[in-house]
Amino acid sequence: MADFPHLSRRGFLNRSAAVGGLLVVPGLLTACSKTDAGSATGEGALDKLRKQGFVRVAYANEAPYGYMEGKELKGEAPTLHREIFQALGVKELKPTLSEWDGLIPGLQAGKYDVVSAGMAITPERCGNAIFSEPEFISPTALMVRKGNPKKVTDLASAKEAGITIGVMSGAVEGSYAKGAGIPEGKIKTLQKPQDGADAVKGGRVDAFLLTGISLRWLAKTNPDTEVTEAFVPQIDGNAQFSPGGAVFRKGNEDLRDSFNRELKKIVSDRSRYVQLLKEYGFGESEIPPADLKTADLCKG
C-alpha cells in the first residue's frame, strides 16, 4: 500500500477559517446521526433524497471547486456530484452558500446533505464527518512571469536557481518549499492568490507556489503570467498528493457508499473524468491513483 501524507490542498484559504471548519459543535453529531441513518423510520438517506427529488449541497463560492455563476452552480465538485446523484436517481442539486469555516458545522447541524466544495481529506476532518473516496488530487505548480525567465520547472530547479518563492500564509506550500531546501529568506508569505500573481508580475517574487488547478484558474485573469507543468512535491520521500472529496454527515455511511460506487465509475474512466471537468482546469494529472484511499488518509 502506498504511503500518502495527509495535507490539505488549500493553499489559498484563510487557514484560521479552515481550522474553524474542523470544530465539533457539541451535540450536533448525536442529534443528527440517528435520523440521518434512517433508524427511526427504516428509510435510508438515499431513499429520502430520491423521494424528494433533490440533494442539498453546500459550496463556499470558490472557483474552480464550487461557485455560483448567475443562477447556475458550477465547479469541479457540483459538476461531478450532479453526475453522480443523477445516476443514483436524485435529479437536482439544491445549493447553500457557506463560509469555509461553517461547512462542516452546517453539515453536522443538518443544514445540507453533502459538502460540494473540493474539501481536502485530513484526519482532523475525518473525526467530524465522513468523506467519499478521493475525487481529485492537487499536484503543485509554479506561476512565473510570461516566458519563464528563470526557467524553473519544479522546486528542485527553483532551489538551484536561487529564486524567491511566494507562498500563501499558513499554507502547506510553505512546508513544500522548506522541504525542498529553499532557504527561509527566499520564501515570501502572501495573503491571497491575487497577491501572489501581483508579486510575480511586479518582480517581488520569481515564482508563486500553489496547486496547479488554482494557478491555471488564476492565470486566466493574469495574462502576463504562465504556469508550469504540475508536479508532486516530496517531503521526506513522501509524495504530497493533497486529495479532496465529497463530505457527508456521520450516520450517512450508506449514502456515502452509494456515492462512492458511482464515483469509482468516473475516476476509472479517464476520458469521462476529463470531459466532465476540463472546463475547470482538471485533467489527467488530477485523477486520483487507484491505491489512494480515504481510510488511509484518515488514519494520519
From TrEMBL:
Example GO BP: ectoine transmembrane transport
SMART domains, per database record: PBPb (SM00062)
Alphabetically ordered keywords of this record: Signal
PROSITE patterns per the UniProt record, alphabetical: TAT
Protein origin, superkingdom: Bacteria
Primary gene name: ehuB
Coiled coil: none
Protein name: Ectoine/hydroxyectoine ABC transporter substrate-binding protein EhuB
Domain called Solute-binding protein family 3/N-terminal: residue spans: 54-284
Keyword Signal set for record: yes
GO function terms (MF aspect): ectoine binding
Pfam families recorded: SBP_bac_3 (PF00497)
